[in-house]
Specification:
Elements lengths: L1 E6 L13 E6 L2 E7 L3 H7 L7 E5 L5 H4 L2 H10 L6 E6 L2 H11 L8 E6 L6 E4 L3 E7 L7 E7 L5 E2 L1 H6 L7 H5 L4 E2 L5 E2 L5 E2 L6 E5 L9 H4 L4 E5 L7 H7 L4 H11 L3 E5 L9 H7 L6 E3 L5 E3 L2
Parallel strand pairs: 3-4, 4-5, 5-6, 14-15, 15-16, 16-17
Antiparallel strand pairs: 1-2, 1-18, 2-3, 7-8, 8-9, 9-14, 10-13, 11-12
């Protein structure tokens, strides 16, 4: 599981910071999460292949999370994209994008599908044989979702030496990986656990931006491998957090602690702060395993 931070600052882009966008690589699939201004430039800077992005998830319709989307969709057209593209986001996103495409006479030459979201309850919005994606209802000034990406358990690990020792035909190896007991060439039943090992624990990633302090999400993200949680403010500006429906670094750490996540990544910093290390200092007073997102930063989770 690999996470590329393309942008992680709040509000407006600056010459040295970018608004929200990140690419999650999971099970050899690339997922773009949010698409603020400059996202396609950041994709190029980080050498991420445009053609591998088939699914884009937009948390909400504030500009710093979606104003880069129509540009990216248009660039896909200019690059003669053929693969279909799926966009998941709040109701209204289809109208926003298609109006711009219509008035600029820039309809895509590839299949473009919108999956508009309205439910205020968690729901699975994408699933294949390897992973699933579900919404995390958030508390913001407009309808907003986070996204929970979860790997499905993989095949069991085949212990080749043991399979040979028990004289198991190669044709049955796939059945072993699927957890089945098999018979040796002599007809003896071989229990699966004797010739296989447990698969790697499935990984999960929770993206939560933007939101006020929201303990209701804790059961859903409990035990998540990695949590990305907005931390727009420090405690010195806590009085601004609730009216604007944002969180402090301390509140993000409290969510991480109560949910028992493996790691917390902070982001969506207000541009009023010049030193983002202050966010980590504040959060680690509550939860120790804290990292800071920053534009261009890459996280790899083995």
């Amino acid at each position: 599981m690999k996470l590329n931070i393309l942008g992680c600052y709040a509000a407006t882009p600056r010459s040295f910071t970018n608004p929200s966008a990140q690419v999650l690589e999971m099970k050899n699939e690339l997922f773009l999460i949010d698409c603020g201004e400059g996202t396609q430039v950041q994709l190029r800077r980080n050498k991420i292949r445009f053609s591998k992005i088939k699914h884009i998830f937009i948390s909400h319709l504030h500009g710093d999370h979606c104003y880069g989307l129509v540009g990216l969709i248009s660039t896909f057209r200019l690059l003669n994209r053929e693969n279909e593209l799926h966009v998941y986001g709040p109701k209204g996103i289809k109208e926003i994008i298609t109006l711009q495409l219509k008035l600029s006479n820039s309809w895509t030459n590839y299949p473009l599908y919108f999956h508009e979201l309205e439910s205020k309850e968690a729901q699975i919005i994408y699933e294949d044989e390897k992973l699933s994606v579900e919404t995390i209802p958030l508390v913001h000034r407009v309808y907003t979702n986070g996204f929970l990406f979860k790997e499905k358990p993989g095949d069991r690990k085949l212990l080749i030496d043991k399979a040979i020792e028990y004289n198991i035909d190669v044709a049955l190896y796939r059945s072993l990986k699927k957890g089945k007991d098999v018979r040796s060439e002599s007809g003896e039943l071989v229990p699966n656990h004797l010739v296989t090992a447990n698969p790697e624990p499935p990984k999960s990633y929770a993206y939560c931006s933007d939101t006020a302090f929201n303990p209701k999400m804790i059961p859903q993200i409990s035990g998540t491998t990695v949590l990305y949680h907005e931390s727009t403010f420090l405690e010195d500006k806590a009085e601004l957090a609730f009216p604007t429906k944002h969180s402090t670094a301390k509140e993000a750490a409290q969510i991480a602690k109560e949910a028992g996540v493996g790691k917390l990544i902070l982001g969506h910093y207000s541009t009023r702060y010049t030193d983002i290390n202050l966010f980590k200092e504040e959060a680690t007073s509550i939860f120790k395993k804290v990292d800071l997102a920053d534009d261009g930063k890459v996280f790899i989770f083995e």
